[in-house]
């Protein structure tokens, strides 16, 4: 078996040709990627459900929009917290994923984490791939892999994230940001 180079902490940006409706124009933050598979959350799928409606104790700590995001099609009845915490040391109840980005243990009392949080987003569900599955999709050109930035997690305009992430690339990927939503209308 060939070694899997970890993409943990990177973004998967859906190629315009990706036809799965779960991932149309999706930006996925990979929280874990190894030989056993991959797990991430879709950063740009806000729902109409307020964080206060399901996790009232965390609502005051989330940024705008203060709604739950659909992290992916898997386990929609589970919640994940992703937070940006500046500095070298993270508090109890937070596990670093990449740089300042990490996972929040939502069982931790919010008052323990609150003072350290730079931003927090709550996700219902996640995106998951079995061993080798993501690598297959990458080789088919379904995703672009790019570096994440802490602001991606808490973008106040998640509906613009797909274009914004592509636009900041220093390659031909920046041109893809201009790809029309429906190319048949051109």
Task: Quickly describe the structure.
The protein is of the alpha+beta class. It is built from 6 helices and 10 strands.
Order of helices and strands: EEEEHEEEEHEHEHHH
Low-confidence stretches: none
Number of helices: 6
Distance linking N and C termini: 45 Å
The pLDDT mean sits at 91
Total beta-strand segments:
10
Largest sheet: 10 strands, mixed
Radius of gyration: 16 Å
Please explain how this structure is put together.
It is a single chain. The mean pLDDT is 91. The N and C termini lie far apart (45 Å). The protein has six helices and ten strands. The longest helix has 7 residues, at 133-139. Strands 1, 2, 3, 4, 5, 6, 7, 8, 9 and 10 form a ten-stranded mixed β-sheet that branches. By secondary structure, the protein is an alpha+beta fold. A hairpin with a 2-residue loop joins strand 2 and strand 3 (37-42).
Structure keywords:
alpha+beta
Topology of this protein?
Blueprint: E1 11-14, E2 27-34, E3 37-42, E4 46-50, H1 51-54, E5 67-70, E6 74-84, E7 94-98, E8 101-104, H2 110-113, E9 119-129, H3 133-139, E10 143-146, H4 150-153, H5 161-167, H6 173-176
Parallel strand pairs: 5-9
Antiparallel strand pairs: 1-2, 1-10, 2-3, 3-9, 4-5, 6-8, 6-9, 7-8
């Amino acid at each position: 078996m060939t070694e899997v180079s970890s993409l943990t902490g990177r973004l998967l940006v859906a190629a315009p040709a990706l036809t799965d409706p779960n991932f149309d124009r999706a930006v996925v933050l990979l929280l874990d990627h190894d030989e056993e598979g991959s797990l991430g959350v879709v950063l740009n799928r806000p729902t109409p459900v307020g964080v206060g409606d399901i996790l009232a104790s965390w609502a005051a700590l989330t940024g705008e929009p203060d709604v739950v995001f659909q992290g992916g099609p898997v386990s929609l009845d589970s919640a994940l917290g992703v937070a940006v915490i500046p500095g070298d040391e993270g508090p109890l109840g937070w596990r670093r994923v990449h740089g300042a980005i990490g996972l929040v243990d939502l069982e931790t009392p919010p008052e323990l984490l609150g003072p350290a949080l730079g931003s927090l987003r709550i996700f219902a569900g996640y995106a998951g791939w079995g061993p080798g599955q993501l690598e297959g999709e990458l080789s088919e050109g379904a995703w672009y892999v790019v570096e994440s930035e802490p602001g991606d997690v808490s973008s106040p305009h998640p509906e613009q994230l797909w274009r914004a992430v592509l636009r900041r690339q220093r390659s031909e990927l920046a041109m893809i940001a201009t790809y029309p939503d429906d190319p048949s209308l051109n």
